[in-house]
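We now fix the convention by which a protein and its fold are recorded. The integers have meaning only within a learned vocabulary of local backbone shapes. A record is reproduced here so that you can trace the correspondence yourselves:
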Amino acid sequence: MAVATTQSLEDLCINSIRFLAIDAVEKAKSGHPGLPMGAAPMAFVLWDKFLRINPKNPKWFNRDRFVLSAGHGCMLQYALMYLSGFDSVTLDEIKNFRQWNSKTPGHPENFETPGVEVTTGPLGQGIANAVGLAIAEAHLAAKFNKPDSTLVDHYTYVILGDGCNMEGVSGEACSLAGHLGLGKLIALYDDNHISIDGSTDISFTEDVSKRFEAYGWHVLHVENGNTDLDAIAKAIEEAKKVTDKPSMIKVTTTIGYGSPNKANTAGVHGAALGDAEIKLTRENLGWTYNSFEVPDDALGHMRKAVERGASYETEWNETWAQYKTKYAAEAAEFERLLSGKLPEGWDKVLPTYKPEDKALASRKHSEICLNALAPVLPELVGGSADLTHSNLTELEISGDFQKGAYQNRNIHFGVREHGMGAICNGIALHGSGLIPYGATFLVFTDYMRGAIRLSALAQCGVVWVMTHDSIALGEDGPTHQPVETVAALRAIPGLTVLRPADGTETSGAYKVAIENAQANKPTLLALSRQNLPNLAGSSIEGVAKGAYTVVDCDGAPDLILIGTGSEVGLCVKAAEELTAGGTKVRVVSMPAWDLFEAQDAAYKESVLPKAVTKRLSVEAGISMGWCKYVGSDGDTVSIDRFGASAPGGVCMEKFGFTVDNVVAKAKALLG
């Protein structure tokens, strides 16, 4: 492929992006040079002419958000960040690409590199996160902007690729974005027709533009994304004029542009070019500079982003100062949201219960908590994946978040669990203090596990509200009855999984979840469909410790029963029968393993003393993992098979979750 060697200032900038990517991948002997080489022109136009950011203050609130959904091409973003003057990405960090402790990891990570908005590894997550970012902007703009003062006004720009468009999560999120009419969301689709297996013709021949039109997006096409910079700029300008729809700009490019032998092949997708091909590419593009060398003219031009960014922020600060004078109450709330601080005494609204109070399902207690918190936590926004009236997640204080009603807080995600998960992550990562929650049946976390895992990895303060938590949900049968799900979720590092036993513990679970959200940590609540008795010994404080004694005995116990969720009440009843027979029994509620593990050794010993080896765990799920707490002398009441279609009470009885079976197993342990 012959390429003109005339180096205009724009060519210098674009080729600087390309060769920083080429050189970094070559030094690391690992990475994806093809996308940065092909997408450099569109990225340059976007960053140079449209993106309103402040490289010296990456967290400036009213910045435009940029998401590289095709995260494997991350050297594109790192090159742009270095050239634009971000302190987090130095030339040394570029040279340290994909190495230990570098700020330039193998995929963009928001927790590692200041200036990266979201963590995009698995394809499709980034564009779905971007929908969440756009929802957050739309909500805050509707809530705080005034006719004479526009406080919230920024765009979310995305570069995505063929792989993102193949992944189902992107379809879920983009369908919802079209329905909601998120006009501040603009996606540039790097249409290069290559994936790892080769030409996309072998598996992906749909008309993506027509699909996005069907979603309700405004769609444009730049036919020559390799050199037609004016067409790219005009397309972005046109997209910005459409305010009632998100825009998708298909930009047709050549992957690995400039490489004589590897351009437009899968060979340049995920492997270094090699010394010989790099030499040929330099000659082909007329690039006479050494490895990692950037021409002064290019660096000087790109670094103008620093001056522009300071000006953007200064201008916004003036708006903010005027806003505070005119709208003191709204400004105070806005300032608190951005600070991440919770209102004083917010948790006092969470109810506690006595044994004589009516037994309710923990999903119902969850509804009570959400609606108690909603008036004191205006940052709480979210909803369900088409199960609002089963999950019980509607905020009564608010209407529905819909096109033209973005100030409302109830988001209807539709039957889009995975999209919901990634969107909630995006809302949390917007940086505006919003606390998103997303709900579905617990078993359907399998549909959104990728997003839940990323919520932990990317430090997203999301509250996952999952109901119908065991075989006790009943007649829907084993397809809907989670048995291995809680164990699988507990395996995710950084995710707190809570299975509350009654109303008070559900309040405790929400206290933990909101505090976790403030600390940028996700929490998952596993809630029952069936009614649960309120326990005399349950407490909000106990939940925060992960495990605590609900029922105790005089002196050292002979046996410890450990339960979670609905099975704690079962343990309490079994303990009563065993105690009547002369056995000294302690009942421990263990709503969250990770919170218990975070306690000091003395506390853990006080709850589960090593000297008491006769322990029985009771949980309507698989036994995996309980050996750590029951030891070799203990046992479990568990279900290591799929459930069955029958009334919930019948399922629990048939699978051994009865007082008689717990007592029998306990007696067998005691010999």
Remarks:
- The domain at 543-670 is CATH 3.40.50.920 (Rossmann fold).
- The chain has a mean pLDDT of 97.
- Residues 196 and 266 are 6 Å apart (CA to CA).
- Residues 304-326 form the longest helix (23 residues).
